[in-house]
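hey can u check if this looks right to u? its 139 residues, i copy pasted from the old doc so theres a chance i mangled smth
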Amino acid sequence: GHAIECRINAEDPARGFRPCPGLIERFSAPNNARCRVDTHLYGGYRVPSHYDSLIAKVITHGKDRATAIGQMEVILRTMQIEGIATTVPFHLALLADPAFRDGKVHTQFVENDFLPTYCSPSLRDADKLKAVRPSPPYR
């Protein structure tokens, strides 16, 4: 089998992963056998600025890499975290990357290969952003 874990942080990927504390206006996460969501969030919770920005860990498992990635994409698109920016859009873009999907990654893949494209000023126009970043509720 294969497992994927995404660590969801209260950070804004569009602004260099700047911390994004604030009020969680709404939170819901899938509760099924296909995933595990470890979190302390609830609607009305205020993410403080003084601590680690980790707000959830999401783990999926599948018979192979493609299945685990597909399940993670469904879970992240279903999860709702409203009120603050999170790293959910970043994870969805990474999961969609062809090199990541094919397992052609290394320990410096995100920093050296993925982030320069993801954070590129040429991706700032609306049409390109829609291709790699989902629409709200992911802020």
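The beta strands are 2-9, 11-12, 18-19, 22-23, 26-28, 35-39, 46-47, 54-62, 80-82.
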